[in-house]
TrEMBL record:
InterPro entries: UPF0352 (IPR009857), YejL_sf (IPR023202). Gene3D superfamilies: YejL-like. This is UPF0352 protein K6K13_08035. The lineage of its organism: Bacteria, Pseudomonadati, Pseudomonadota, Gammaproteobacteria, Enterobacterales. Belongs to the UPF0352 family. It comes from Symbiopectobacterium purcellii.
Length: 75
């Protein structure tokens, strides 16, 4: 089920497109891209979320990521 967001689809797509462009500019393979994005998530949580809420948010993020992964071949 899709969740409502306070951000417009257009803004989300614009930011996503810019992030993808940076990874493509550096010819980042999948493993490097995942490492960089994972480090970004960790940094955001550690610098922007109260210490007492970090584990809860990290678990929620991980659960949402897991739920968004498809099992069919998308290539």
């Amino acid at each position: 089920m899709a969740q409502l967001s306070r951000y417009s689809d257009e803004l989300v797509e614009q930011v996503l497109s810019e992030l993808v462009s940076v990874l493509e500019k550096h010819h980042a393979p999948t493993d490097l891209s995942l490492m960089v994005l994972g480090n970004m998530v960790t940094n955001l949580i550690n610098t922007s979320v109260a210490p007492g809420q970090r584990q809860v948010l990290a678990r929620s993020f991980a659960d949402a990521l897991q739920a968004s992964i498809t099992t069919h071949n998308a290539h």
